[in-house]
Structures are given as C-alpha cells and as structure tokens.
Amino acid sequence: PQMAELPGLLIPKRSGLLLPEFLAEAGRHFRLVTTDEFESEPQRQWPEISAAVICVVANYIDCPEVLDRLPNLKIAANHGVGVEHINQEMFRSRRILVTHTPGVIAESTADAALLHILNTARSQRQVFEHIRTPAGQQPSWGGSAVPLGNDLAGATVGIVGLGAIGRCVARRCGLGFGCRLYYYQRRRAEPQLELELGGQLQYCASLADLLPRCDFVVLACPLGPDTRHMINADTLRLMRSTATLINVARGGLVDTEALLTALRSGVIAAAGLDVTEPEPLPAEHPLLSDSRLNVWVTPHFGTHTSQTRLSMQRLCLDQIRDALRGQVPQAALFEL
C-alpha cells in the first residue's frame, strides 16, 4: 500500500529506545509519526493515527487534550511491564486498549539485580575509586584501603515479589550461588514453584519478618499505593547493619532520603539501585557523588540488552496488530 494509505503509528522520538529492526518492521505496516512531528503542530487533528507506542519515560498521551487530537486511536502499547504511569481509566473511557510487555523482561532484569548484588558485595565503587589513586597503583593489595567484600555463595537473599523477575532472581541466587532464600508477597506461592526454585525458598508473611533475616534484599514488586515507600526509615532499621538493598523494580518503592540517611549512619551497609526517586537522580545527589558510600546506581537499564529490547518491541507490534484486527491482545490491561 501507499504510505498515505497506511495507518499511522505514533512513536517516541527518543534516541536508542526503538531499534532499527523494529522501525524497519513497523515501517512496512504503518506510517511512523514521531512525537516531534506530532508536537510540532499542536492544534492539528491526527485521524490517521490508530496506534501508539508509549513507555515510562515517554508517556506523552497521558492527558485528554492530547487524546482529543487522536480521534481514531485504538491502542496504546506500553514498552515495559510497569504501568503505574498510565491513567488506565482515561483510556478505558475512550475505548482505547492499553497493553504492556510481561514475560520478556524477566531474565535481563534479574541479570541486572545480580550485577548489583555482586558489585555491592565486592565494593566495586570503592575499588574503582581506589585504583585511580596513587595507593591503588602500588603492586601490593595487602594494605589496600578498599574494605573486604563478602561472598555471595551461602548468603541469605530476600526477594520482595515473586513474579517473573523475582523467580529469575531466586533461580540465579539459589541454584547458582547456593544462597538461602526468603520471599515476601501478599499471597504465598504454590508449593510446586517453591520446589522448582531449589526447595530452599521460605515464605515470610510480612516484610518485617523478611528484612532482619537477609544479607541482600531485592525489590521486584510493582509500585502501587500500598507499596510506595515500603522501604522507609522504619523498615530500613529492621535490616541488618551489614545488609544491602537492591532495587530493580520502581524507584518509588524506596524513600530516597531515608535510604541516604541509613547508608550514611551505618543502619545498612550498601545499596544497588537500577531505579530511583527522582529518576534520574541529579548529578550532585550524594548517592551519586559521595564516593565513600557503597552504592551502585544504574539508569533504569534492567532491560537494556539488544535481545530483550527487540523482544519487547516485537511484542508491542504483535499486540498493536491484534488490536487493529479487532482481537483482544494477550497482554491487554483491561477488556473493553
């Protein structure tokens, strides 16, 4: 079909988010309209746009004024699993489907959790700072200023949220490193699942029960009203003074200032953060600038691999095609 006849697909103009393979595949079926083009004519109606790709950092159709300019939008495909940034009721009331991308991000996000666990266990931030100093250039490590690290083998890991990501973390830590595993979520998992994950997975009925037991606490649960700032001054005090907090879920699960205070005063030993509140942290924020802290921060890059990104984007495209054929996509957040 001619370009003008193709349905329009609104996509984020964000360098590097959408891969060339996705753009080439989508371009065969849709006329691609970038947000730059869309926003360059703020009064224009776009009846030709029938679908949009959105994500947590590019959610540009989250107000009625924008949706008013998209009278024929049928689906907003969210590039990611977390959906707390989406006003679902607004889309539902306009009969626009919203989908997300579960099932394809768990492995790479669990790898990111493991990266943070190992980097903090071996004080990689301090090691990196040390090796750039005159003392770090000496041949002997015997009198090193870098604190001794900790073994992951045999450590106790607590996982908050045993969804797809939490299960992948449990598999890596339990089967890979022989860690003792605890988990907390509102409902206990099926016994079969506990057995599959090495049989050494124990359920804790509350966060307060889990935190004091663990060397590493990994947050892998959704953000909602009941989980916002679940890690705060009170819950941090329940953790061991030698413990490390790992967050690969959502920044809002953690009260950032309470975490900073806890790290500075020795309430806990370390933190590995792939997500933060605010996100990104300002460059001068002490979690980034205070090199005395054993903190490893990455820029929400848990899914930042070429394989996972392509899987996410192909899933978005499949769901858009399903919706435009009149089918309910498999990962729709609601039915109309």
From TrEMBL:
Domain D-isomer specific 2-hydroxyacid dehydrogenase catalytic: 52-331
A single cellular component GO annotation: cytosol
Coiled coil: none
The organism's place on the tree of life at top rank: Eukaryota
Keyword Acyltransferase assigned: no
InterPro entries in the record: D-isomer_2-hydroxyacid_DH, D-isomer_2_OHA_DH_cat_dom, D-isomer_DH_NAD-bd, NAD(P)-bd_dom_sf
Domain spans labelled D-isomer specific 2-hydroxyacid dehydrogenase NAD-binding: 137-302
Recorded family membership: Belongs to the D-isomer specific 2-hydroxyacid dehydrogenase family.
Name of the protein in question: 2-Hacid_dh_C domain-containing protein
